[in-house]
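task queued by scheduler; priority normal; single chain, no ligands, no partner chains; default sampling; output format set to structure tokens
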Amino acid sequence: MVHNAYDSNQLVKVCPAKIESAGSWGCRLLFGCIDGSLRIYVPESMSRQNIPSDESDGSGIITEAYVLERTVVGFAKKAVMSMDVLHSRRLLLSLSDAITLHRLPEFEVVAYIGKTKGASLYAWDDKRGFLCVNKQKKLFIYRYDGSREFVEVKEFSVPDAVKSMAWCGDNLCLGIRREYVIMNTLTGAFFEVFPCGRSAPPLVVSLPSGELLLGKSPPA
């Protein structure tokens, strides 16, 4: 018997630019595109209504067709490779040419970390306000001070480029090469977890429960 863990629903049929990253904000879908634009979609049934530009109504994603509500041209200088909506802080964290923090709903730039230019990925710890950024074979850890600044806390060297990562308390779970390792951010010590297999790159996903979902290829 086959068990389907997820149901698939097509919400957006066509986007004018290639989508590189996505996030949700209330009932809205936010798409970071290859041309540096941010495109905001709303449910078609609500497109003619005056939808509040916040999450005060408690609405979420609706499984129906979505239409373009707004395009923020020049949101980023390059392709928006990843993004996270920081719901409790009403902020949008994104990675393009560097890490940038925007305030919602105006998309005003709150902070820009110039040192992260050339970074490949990041992991955000919303509970503690900690941000880990991977740049080549370095990990940089920042603390958001709640205003307009990210304060650099620590810097670590890693044996190879990080393919995926997520926070787990004081630790970071890293997907490096074809395996997973845990790095203690207090001591910098590494602990091997298990290999991810040969047919797929490592994938680390942080779940709302605090658990981690790790991808692993089936045995040959």
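post-processing summary
- The chain is about 0% helix and 45% strand.
- The first strand starts at residue 19 and ends at 25.
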